[in-house]
Amino acid sequence: MYKTWLFLHILGVFMIVGGASVATALGIKMSKSRRAQTIADMSGLSIVAERYVITPGAVLALVAGTFLVHKTGHDFGEFWIVAAYILWIVAITIGWVVLGRHSSRLNGHAKELLAKGVEEDDALAKEAAAPVGPVFGAVQNVILLAFIYLMVVRPGAKF
């Protein structure tokens, strides 16, 4: 059973990293565009990555990781485990509350403009280039690196 949980945990991590990579690339493309259609398409794809790849991957990694802690006999109070749970909460909060809402707002704004026949818009371009995406996206990427560090090095772990 250990190998199954380990596989599921690693699969969850791959889903998070893959989805975050796609969302980052889409965010970069959106931030450089003035076209409503491009921003609508890219923000829509980012929403799909967030909802159907990153979030399920995060839940899978959490559940499988929790079972791994239990199966391997580690103490849930060990530093690296506590740190991972705290980072997971921070990452999910940033993803859903900040980045997810930003993508949804962009998508809605771009679709409204398209419905009015507007192809390019300075306000939409400014919104797409707002620092919220790059800043919080970078924080998310640092958290991903911290997760990988904690899982590989396990600082303070009792072996």
Short description:
The protein is an all-alpha fold and 159 residues long.
Account of the protein in words:
With 159 residues, the protein is mainly α. The protein has one domain (2-153). The protein has helices at residues 2-31, 36-72, 79-115, 122-128, 132-153. α1 packs antiparallel against α5, α2 (36-72) packs antiparallel against α3 (79-115) and α3 (79-115) runs antiparallel to α5. The chain is elongated and about 60 Å long. The chain starts with a helix and ends in a 6-residue tail after the last helix. The model has no long low-confidence stretch (mean pLDDT 94).
By secondary-structure content and strand pairing, the structural class works out as mainly alpha
Number of strands: 0
Spell out the helices and strands N to C: HHHHH
| Number of helices, counting only DSSP H or I runs of 4 residues or more | 5
As a whole number of angstroms, the C-alpha radius of gyration is 18 Å
Number of domains: 1
Distance between the termini: 20 Å
> What is the mean predicted local confidence, pLDDT?
94
Q: State the helical fraction.
A: over 70%
Q: What spatial form do the alpha-carbon principal axes imply?
A: elongated
Q: How would a crystallographer describe the biggest sheet?
A: none
Name the beta content range: under 5%
Contiguous runs where pLDDT drops below 50 for at least 5 residues: none
